[in-house]
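User: Batch of two.

Assistant: Item 1 of 2:
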Amino acid sequence: MTKKIISLLLALLMLLSCTAALAEGITPVILEVEGGRIMGFKMGDVNVFKGIPYAEAERFEMPQPTSWSDIRACLNYSEVCPQGQYSNNANDFCSVSNYFVEDREENTFLTVNVWTKDTNPMGILQYSNQSLRQAKCRKKPLRRYPCMKKVFCFLLSAALLLGMLCAPAMAEDDKIVIGLSLNLQDEINVKFQEIYEQLIAENYPNVELVVTNALGDTSRQLSDVESLIMQDCDVIILRAIDADSGVVCAEAIKNANIYLVLHDTNVNTDIWDVRVMGDQGDHGKAIGKAIKEYLDADESRVVNMGYIHGGTTVTVMRRETGIYDVCGDYVENGRLNTLITGNAAWSADKAMALAEDWLNTYPELNCIAAASDEMAIGVIQALEGAGVNLDEFLVFGVDGTEAGQQYIRSGELDATSYQDIPVAVAKILEVCVGLVNGQTFDKEINPNNYYPMSIDNIDALLGITAE
């Protein structure tokens, strides 16, 4: 009877606090512009809107006004229209970020970026094809929900109250709910989810895992995070789509007083509790070692390389610059030349399109390295389609996925940087459970789980012994 009374009081407390909780959280800014509604975010006292579309056009056609029906998330930069020759300097932002990859569907570089001080609560920006002009606006707190959502929360709490009255009280004080916000539906993220579920089932019977996947959509990831918050997660693990949109997600999580653990991702804020991430430069060093071994074997060899990035953050770009940490001497003497770099946004199809263009533009190209195995496989498909002899062309990837391992065994992928996923996931789960139980951890943790993988050591890395 005592437990039922306690449960009743807790449910009543939840009911009373539900509406108050809705008013908490961050305040992204919703703007009404000519094309529709857009959503940006605040950084300090500045409202930031990135990639606002002002027109649309088919290739070689005159631009036309554009519009949309839903709220459009303007949280990160759109693609850059290519202008002239790209630099070979790996630290040149313009040479390695937002490189336009023609997807033969739409051109997305007809956009503007806006930064504006919030000096007038009723002032926002409206734009036309010719200029930006001020107009009436409104600001909308992210977690200030319409009346219907308050009604829904009331009914949900009432249902919970009824359930507690009609059923025996259960002692679940030790239950931990962990939210996992994934950014992409690619092979490596699917593997991450699989390992999280496996290790929780094996080692953490009192942990419940709630998984969402943003499928590469920044506005969807923001919605995913809000959903996880509403499900009373004790900890949220975030793999942000990009560093800018990740700020909004991180602020929402921390404003809800939830622990935030970053998994192999970077956001432009330091409000997270713990980040578990390997040095992305180690991925590059692994590929650099493979290139160095190839050049060391024959003094007449020269590598003319193209590099395909997946993202635009400095952290992710270390997957390329780590190569030069190992092969600096060969860069200086001209035996390792980076002819071109591009960004395929972690897409095998876009990587294939880049490779096809490069093969036509750079006949001396004899190597393409990609920031993921999935993109490297897209490169291999382009090479095979062009009739290139893969025995005379180097292809490198990152992650050591199962698909990447198959291409290594077939000889089509020369090397990859293998990521021992269970090691990283085990450390993250240890951190999540520890934070809830009052433990403290270093803010940055490197699981040291990256290893070079080639046909020479793949069996050893995977623990496969010859029969």
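Item 2 of 2:
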Amino acid sequence: MDVWSSEFTDKPSANTEFRWLVGLRGRPEDRVVPVVGLRWAKVNDLGWKTAEIAAIEGSYTLVSPSGVKTEGKWARAECPGTGEAWSQGGTAAAVTGALWKLSANVTLSKGFTMFQVQWQSWAVSREAALQFGSLGTAREIPDWAYLVAKHSGKVLAIADAATTDGAWLVQSTPAGGDHQKFRLEPVEDGYFRVMAKHSGKYLTVDKAGTGDGARVNQQNWSGGDQQRFRLEKLPDGHYRIWAKHSGRALDVSGAGTVDGTPVDQWQWCDVDQQKFRLDATFPDLVVLVPKHCDMAVHIAGGDTRDGTPVRLHVRDTAQPQKFLIEEVGQGWHRIVAQHSGKVLNVSGAGTGNGTPVDQWQWADVDQQRFRLERLPDGYYRVAAKHSGKVLNVSGAGTTDGTPIDQWEWADVDQQKFRLDDLGSGYFRIIAKHSGKALAVNAADTADGAVLVQATTADSENQRFKWFLT
């Protein structure tokens, strides 16, 4: 298992840049060693392929939460075929606390060219259990996650909430049940086992099948490769999930969108039914209980047809007793940026396609009012009241700094957004086509500062709160 801090970038000069991973490798309950990984390097505007790097050498100091220092030297770099060059320290230590600090000096060499990099007191958290070089930061992996299919907006679940070996994995409308929640537990370099919360059993490719269409169920942990999966992050923020034994990806069979569609494995086709996101929460479902008695409102027989009677019933955990409370009426909001306290605004109250979106002090005008409209895949479109047009990433651009404008609704992914709950009422707004976040450019606080998309970061110019107007 690898325990990492988040990736970071070191740019010692305008023409030189290094992208690093640094952390602790091993099992936290046992013993770990410090590790440094180089994902990418640019020196004097020339890209260095990590496989060409002859060595990552130098020394390091590891400081435990109690202040105990461990010093050592990096071993010679290895390139294990993952696209990264990495090096391991020679001294092991038991992890007994949550936060360690790692400082180092590193010398890279490629042929006769050498370059030295130093950093100090880089924090390493034992909770950041990540796949080496693939998952980014620890906060991307909730403790218990819903696996949401991109094509349908539905979640993966164990059928009928069964707790027995062999119960099938299917897709289902989110209901908040533990049979829809999974935990990713590292088992070796880059691979995870996936545990269903309600049963404690693990996702398994049935009978270790290696062909297309082999279904996925739950089983007790046996340690076989058919229970080991690798997550690979895609540019739009979703993941593909590979089975180790077959090299095939999890797939919602036939791109089905109805509840109960089975999940199987299939060769990678780069289609939406093979792409998943990890969500910590879904909208809360509630049970409606009348004040005069301890019973619940219940849809008779769980029927889905129009005209089905609604009755009182003994309270239980059944789906026909769970309801989603949605706001109705006008639903217009002002959207406030945390860093500035200013609101999103369609510049100059323009009504044409391509009018930019910026921030401005609240003026109680319709170009500052927006409505979120939920789409079938779980994403939202964001409509401006004054024009009826929607927020749009200009030209479907995928680079940082691409401006946000308004455009007539075209049902394209650059007009669809998901909301990541950051707590305290704030949300990050993620564009479906790129996986990047809406942000006030350069964290500017002035009126007229434009809205753009940017790589997700824990910064206040990417945090927004909605207020009814």
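Confidence is low (pLDDT under 50) at residues 1-6, 77-86, 94-98, 119-140.
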